[in-house]
Amino acid sequence: MFITWLLRVLGRSTTHAVRDRVRSKMERDILAEVNHPFIVKLHYAFQTEGKLYLILDFLRGGDLFTRLSKEVMFTEEDVKFYLAELALALDHLHGLGIIYRDLKPENILLDEEGHIKITDFGLSKEAIDHDKRAYSFCGTIEYMAPEVVNRRGHTQSADWWSFGVLMVMEKWYLFVGGVASELWG
User: Fold this and answer.
1) In what residue span(s) does the Protein kinase domain sit (predicted)?
2) Is 48 labeled as catalytic in the residue annotation?
3) Domain limits of the chain?
4) Is this model's pTM higher than 0.90 or not?
């Protein structure tokens, strides 16, 4: 069996060096801690003076954004499958006290069997339980929870907001309860 990995290089910008170092270390720490079938696996990590290298699973299926752009509509079975796996991955992260904070189709990869894997933990936050809040304005604006946008402090519920927005923006909600055929004729 031939194993293929992806090398992700995180450079350190001179303008935002401290923030970038903190985010790079946080991403590495989270990936080292997490072991879940629907989250990309970190195999190795090493660094040079100016860069951090992460050796991750290589997923031949590409990302969900690309698949969405190539297909007019997903089947109801596909939608249920992706949403279930995504919900399990988010629940696992939240159980470890991690807020993901950047849920979007570009960060959802597909393996060769069609299973999802969440990737890109650069905006994630560790050590957040149900009562503690994070205050960073980060993520992709279209998917951000109102409390993130308004900078009122957010919890893990911000990820569930993004989950719902993903479902609505990609029109996945049309399949819930089998209403797609009624709406699309």
Assistant:
1) 1-185
2) no
3) 5-57, 64-180
4) no
Tell me which of 57, 63, 107, 119 is the catalytic residue: 107
Provide φ and ψ at 6, rounded to 5°: -110, 135
Output the pLDDT for position 181: 44
Q: What is the pLDDT of residues 84-94, one digit of tens each?
A: 999 999 999 99
- Which class in CATH covers the domain with range 64-180? mainly alpha
Known catalytic membership, residue 15:
no
140 among known catalytic residues = yes
Residue 98 backbone zone (phi > 0: left; psi -120 to 50: alpha; other: beta): beta
Active site residue 131: no
Digit-coded pLDDT (tens) for 107-143: 999 998 999 999 989 888 876 655 677 777 777 778 8
Please say if 111 is a catalytic residue. Answer: no
Write the pLDDT tens digit of every residue in 41-78: 999 888 887 777 888 888 888 888 888 777 767 777 88
CATH class of residue range 5-57: alpha beta
- 142: which residues sit within 8 A by CB, 6+ positions away? 104, 165, 169
> What local confidence, expressed as pLDDT, does residue 166 receive?
82
Instruction: Given the residues 20, 78, 80, 140, select the one marked as catalytic.
Output: 140
> Of the residues 57, 102, 155, 159, which is catalytic?
102
